[in-house]
Design brief:
By secondary structure, the protein is mainly α. It is built from two helices and no strands.
């Protein structure tokens, strides 16, 4: 399949848009990386908060030592 003049012009225009203009691709990739880092940090923060809620709601099931009196009335 041979490339015609219009296909070459379109390829050159696309290459110019992607590669020209002072590093647009590197700026886009930098913004993309920042977005991923912010997303991961948000997931970690949500996980920490959920873990804290579960820890606060947990019951103490530690067995009492011998001779230790129970402060709770049964």
């Amino acid at each position: 399949m041979a490339l015609g003049p219009w296909q070459i012009v379109i390829i050159l225009l696309l290459a110019g848009l992607l590669l020209g203009g002072g590093g647009r691709i590197s700026a886009l990739m930098g913004d993309f990386a920042k977005g991923i880092k912010a997303f991961r940090k948000g997931l970690e923060d949500d996980g920490d908060k959920a873990l804290e809620k579960r820890a606060d709601a947990a019951k103490d099931v530690t067995p009492k030592a011998e001779g230790e009196s129970s402060k709770e009335s049964s």
